[in-house]
Specification:
Layout lengths: L11 H6 L1 H6 L11 H18 L4 H25 L11 H13 L4 H17 L4 H7 L2 H26 L1
Subcellular location: Cell inner membrane
Keywords: Cell inner membrane, Cell membrane, Hydrolase, Lipid degradation, Lipid metabolism, Magnesium, Membrane, Metal-binding, Phospholipid degradation, Phospholipid metabolism, Transmembrane, Transmembrane helix
Function: Lipid phosphatase which dephosphorylates phosphatidylglycerophosphate (PGP) to phosphatidylglycerol (PG).
Length: 167
């Protein structure tokens, strides 16, 4: 399914009137016209860092990511509807946030590994090798929005894991 655009430009005011879209847009991090996926990923990195920083362990972060994935299917679906049935609009970044929670719950801790994990995720999310591309183009609705990013997160975790074994 081809990505589409809404008939209007989402604004902060629109997000404040659409609470589910506020979450779908990553608490506003998906609003920038340039690189909303990167901004959403940075929001996910920030949230993961805050949660781990207050003592939430990696296992709990992973379990939170699982719950956020399941809930995110509905969030992303409702956000698509609020945009006028727009498919996988770039400003919907809840999927990037959840993917970052997965990545940072599964990779070694430390600044170096987080930068590599972030970069690897962004690479796979942008380039979309198979089956990411298939999930992005063939799976509709909220599940489609969420699924391609989780697969990209798995690829990123694998890359970091391999690098961690080497170094």
């Amino acid at each position: 399914m081809e990505k589409t655009k809404p008939t209007f430009t989402p604004t902060w005011k629109w997000l404040m009137e659409n609470k589910i879209a506020f979450v779908g847009f990553g608490f506003g991090s998906g609003l920038p016209a340039k690189a909303p996926g990167t901004w959403g990923s940075l929001m996910g990195m920030l949230l993961a860092g805050l949660l781990l920083g207050i003592g939430v362990g990696k296992l709990w972060l992973f379990l939170l990511a699982v719950v956020a994935f399941v809930v995110g299917i509905g969030i992303c679906h409702e956000t698509e509807l609020a945009l006028g049935r727009v498919h996988d609009y770039s400003g919907i970044v809840w999927d990037e946030i959840v993917a970052m929670l997965f990545v940072f719950s599964l990779i070694p801790q430390g600044f170096f590994w987080w930068i590599i994990g972030f970069a690897a995720f962004r690479f796979f999310d942008i380039v979309k090798p198979q089956p990411i591309s298939w999930a992005d183009s063939k799976v509709n609705g909220g599940l489609g929005v969420m699924l391609d990013d989780v697969i990209a997160a798995v690829y990123a975790v694998l890359v970091v894991g391999i690098l961690a074994l080497i170094f």
